[in-house]
# Entry
Amino acid sequence: MKLIDKSIDKEGQGYVTLVPEEPEDMWHAYNLISEGDYVRSSTVRKVQSESSTGSSTSNRVRTMLTIAVETIDFDTQACMLRLKGKNVEENQYVKMGAYHTLDLEMNRKFRLTKHEWDSVSLERVEMACDPTKSADLAAVIMQDGLAQICLITSSMTIVRAKIEASIPRKRKNFIQQHEKALAKFYDNIIQGILRHIDFDIVKCVIIASPGFVRDQFYEYMFQMAVKTDNKTLLENKSKFMLIHSSTGFKHSLKEILQDPAVVNKISDTKAASEVKALEVFYTTLQCEPDKAFYGKKHVEKANEAQAIETLLISDNLFRCKDVNLRKEYVKLVDSVRENGGDVKIFSSLHISGEQLEQLTGIAAILRFPMPELDEDDESETED
Amino acid sequence: MDYSEDYDGYDDVYGHSVDDDYYISPSNRQFIYNRENSRDQPKIGEFIRTEQDIQEEDESETASDLSDLDKARLESCIEQIKATLGPLCIPRNELVNIIISNNYNIERATNAVLDDSKNLQSEPKEKVPSIKVVASGGKTTTNVTKGFDLSQNKDSIKLNTTPRSQSPASGRGTPIISQSEGTSEETKIIKSKENKIDVETQYKKERGDSKEHLYMVVIGHVDAGKSTLMGHLLYDLGQVNQKTMHKYEQESRKVGKQSFMYAWVLDETGEERNRGITMDVGRSQFETKSKHVTLLDAPGHKDFIPNMISGAGQADVALLVVDATRGEFETGFDFGGQTREHALLVRSLGVTQLAVAINKLDTVSWSKERFDDISQKLKVFLKQAGFREGDVTFVPCSGLTGQNLVDKPTENELLTWYNGPCLLEVIDNFRTPERPVSKPFRLSINDIFKGTGSGFCVSGRVETGSLNVGERVMVCPSRELSMVKSLYIEDLSQTVVFAGDQATVTLSGIEMQNVSIGNVLCDPQNPVQVSAKFQARIVVFNLTIPITKGFSVILHHQSLVEPAVVSKLISQLNRSTGEVVKKHPRFLSNNTSAIVEIQVSRPIALELYSDCKELGRFMLRVGGVTIAAGLITKIIL
# Structure
């Protein structure tokens, strides 16, 4: 993302102008824009005009529009952001108050005006515009009969393909069927890799599986690549990494991102640091349950006592429609920072973020144990 | 009142399955209640417990006239017994008496306590004369189950066939279970009653005269020698001809792995032979004096535990192989090894009889000390895991040299101290569990492949009921109907298969793509329930990170493996009594028991544990470690 222009006054009112440059920027934009904001961008609109004789013609025109956002849709697969709202700036084609749907486009600037820019949004702009890019990673997580091809960027994990096949078990005199099904399954994965992984961008492809599936597959893939003279695969052979995982399901990604070999390659990415923070939370919960809490009520109480050392919060909570609720969360984040605590905003598109979301979306590791929180809770539930 | 149901549930007590000793600090042991005691009570009594407090009072009187030394010995005895048996079920002064009468011998006192608690169990049931607990199985040809003697048998079959009597609820039922049981079951009983009688007579007619069929899974740590032991056993029994064996010997020598020659009998693919480990469940069969045994050779490697679970799910009994080599047993048994995990898994899967083959004893020159040492360690662990002492047999053997497998040992060093049965005799002594043939038909699919003729085949274990050629079956969770074209057991064509059989079913009228591993074939009149959400009572094993709300896990249910989320922690329970300790706990840590709600990523076919034990059990795993086992108590549609 490129920041073109920024004008925010003391009260926090103002606008920024941004140019999204890659799909991930759309995700940042999705997290920035909330209902009631004004977004100004160039768009295409079908305009009907009536000639003097009364015949009407309709044609598409490209025009600049500013809308007051009412609904926001984000498509994770295509990385498309679609904003619907009322026009607030009349021009020759579109009347005031007419509805329009904006599709934010890559490499085309848009201006976002907010009545109040809070610290979380400003931080998001800064993060989005940070030019130091981290390694782009692709992962194939597999087990016999199931494979998933994922792309992992600094703030997103996207499953591009899920391949399922039923593979007959080995039985006496029927080994061929097993091997045939396996070969077909591997072929499908190779197709998936070629289709979904762009080797110009991706710096590393992780193949993860339990047992020996990954070795078998790796061997098979390069045998096939030699056979079919597939240049893309052969040239990028060095990019493949074989890592152990306990299953072929998506949440094994968590294990993979903790593997020392992978950590070395991606240590600077958000994905890895999130996984680590969540891990720390769980360990604390196991060892010192009075120092780890989750749920808004508990975390807020802990914050009142200035006890929070690390706050884990899902970005999903900042996307909520209720303005007041969002303000509460922002206030919480600000106050934790003020008290010298660390705040980690999890991307809800990552595996760790998904898990945090299941865990009410907010969790905290405390500086000192607060057993009274737990007791409070008990007395409440009894009531 | 029907007391047999109380007894019936005894075998499937989950609370037993973990080491009861090391998580309880001595300071809070007194607060932990023991399950055993709860089962002795009439049901209402469960909710009113007082005797724990009373016991303490008169305890000092008995001990008061002892010398200081004796007192100290007594205390240490009590401590040790508690460590072995977990929280105690009998009053302290009674325990003191037992110890004194056994002259401070811990071993004997423990056994006495166990016997005592067994007696306690049967007393209030007013059935004492007819119940005889069979210690290590009689060689009868009729179905003998769960420790009942023959005279009791007919009666217990009748009682057991109603789904209700299979209920685990006997000792520790939550109100939820009993509520949901009510209406749905009544109808089921009526429906199944119609053909119940003729299924049972048909079963007797078909199977009455042939040898009993027993499914045995072989488990143990990786490289304990499971495949080699079984391969050698098969060779000695003449199941593998000499020519093939000679071929294996030559070939294995060629690749420099001659010690694997017997393992090649069961590890058939190139991959398995090259790496020298079993990856998928190997199958074979042999016959003993009174039984037809199907052998399931499970992989020991950690990564293939899903395969092992699907294999063990089909088994009636288990053979645990441990490596006696110095250092090897320790790695396999101590934390992180598969010996513990496997034993816990098979117990959670409902296997109650276990033989332990202490393998590779030739490497320690048939040392009796080593054998005793290992069996002692295992005995304590297995007792905690919930195996009854009488159901566990220890056999010294060597898979590579073939000592004590089929024939009595010839090695002098072994003969000097061992005169027990050889492995084959131990297998022969296993009791065949009762087959629930009159319940509605259920088969859980663990393999799908193209057969020789038209249509395609699915194979799996018939969990309950029976199936005839030409019947219609429903494939759940997709609820598609299909026709049974033919049935096979071990490549032999059959017209009917019964519960307990390992059957291959040729289906027609359905696409192969629409059936996947883990689906359940069932009777269209009495279909299995389908849901993506259910409530369950779980027992948490050893964890590194605690279970919280939203914890993502892998659910193993029969052969099915699906990602799932623990969506709600409803209540934490006392592990032995089942009482609610805490509502809405924040998290579940090691060795707790709880009621939770589980959300599976897509609908699966399942049953309440009270309706069908086999389909009501599941296992939760995370990161390659089994973290919990559970019973389904409520299905949320």
Q: What stands out?
A: Residues 212-428 of chain B form a domain with the Rossmann fold fold (CATH 3.40.50.300). The radius of gyration of chain B is 25 Å. Residues 175-207 of chain B form the longest helix (33 residues).
